[in-house]
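Methods — Computational structure assignment.
A single polypeptide chain was analysed. Its primary sequence is given first, followed by the predicted tertiary structure written as structure tokens.
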Amino acid sequence: MIVFHGKNLRTSERGVALVVALLMLMLISAALMGMIMMSNTETNISANFRDEQTAFFSSKGGIEEVRDRLRSGATDSLGGSALFSSTNVPPFPLPGLANGVLYITNPAAGETITPWLPLGAPTTYPDTEICKEVVCVSGVPTGSWYVTPAASKSTSYAATPILPWKWVRVMAMINKPSTTSKLMPVNGSSGSDTTAGYRVCWNGTNEVAISNITYTGCSAASNTYLPVYELTALAVTSSGSRRMTQYEVSQTSFPPMPGAMIFDGPNPDYGTNPNSAAFGVSGTDAHHGPTGTGCPAAANVPGLAGYNAASTTSLGTQVNRPGSYTGTPSGIADESSNLGPLSTVDGLTNLVNSITTAAGPNVYGLSPLPNPSTLNLGTDGAPVINVVQGDYTFGGPGAGILVVTGTLTFNGTPSYNGLILVIGKGNVQKNGGGNGTLNGSLFVANLYSDTPPTYTHPIPLGAYSPPGIPTVAWNGGGTANIQYDSCWINAVNQSFPYRIVAQRELIY
């Protein structure tokens, strides 16, 4: 038998599967390599972004530390530095002049930070921005333009790990200081503005430039003007990311207290008040604050201040001994023109909210807040801002600002230096005839529409409504006195944080 064998036509295709597999493996490997490269690129981009953000927020952290340390009552307050005068305020000289600039440095271990040296000198982290703010010669301002730098890394402020901001510069702000300055003139004019180089002040609403030749400072131009200060910070991370930020800040203005004892509201209830000649309320400015604190110009006020003409008349008919109340223009006077925002529930609420923010952890009341019995009332050397959200019984002594939203009861010997603000129920009760003196001012305002002692209907916000009926019942006089003192009021005002007027990032 003859058998025929056909030729296998697929013999030539042997090994194709291997080639295809290898090609697929190469494609997959290439894709994986691309994905790895993309992943590495994204990781590097994220790391760089994180590093830049670390530098950015570290520079802001440095500024925030310094902004808080401008307060006279802050931990490690800058009031003790050579830059600050005995008035516990930032520098009076303009930048570029002697002692016009303060640096707060924050070196890492083994670092030397000397931003005030010329750029060509052996220095680290030089201040390349200063010559855009003031006129410079040879890379730095002339003369003794800075003071001995203050140190940072306080345990009260330091983060863990230490933030990589290197220095913060503090100086008074001047208007369009040079042709190279990035700062816009405060009045919006061009670089040829005739107010260029003038000191910048805050009038409560916006910045204004005042002549350095005509006025010695902001308060000389107007008693409502406050200086504006410029805080500039540089942060550099270990990877080399650099960011520079800048704030313009001004002191938070506190509403004036137009009397030694102020009944802020119509129909005041002062039917229970002392018959004792030993009790007195004086609006004659004692002008004697804590040691080392500057005082404003002495200004006398009424002993007893009324909300309007009708309420002032009512107060006059209720007091048992009108001669116990002295002051200017009289012992009992209508101060409606001087109450400003404190004449409305909105303004009073804003004031309480501002003080509560400034008080930080010193806010007391019902759970979960700490019990008021544990509060630190402060001392003359270390005044404290306290807010009690509820009733409080006070025996003194203390110093600072005390806000009580409920009923404030005085017992024993209630001595206090500063401001006592009873805003909420607006109810003050004094029991017994113990001794004690309040140096500063006592302010009473009721934010409820009920007739005291019922407090169930808060006056709504937004209508600029007047406050309710303020109540003071002073049972027994003793030798208690309320003495107006502008120095103490000014001292506790300095414990408020400086407000941010403007902020920007600078190109380093």
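Note: Residues 261-493 form one domain.
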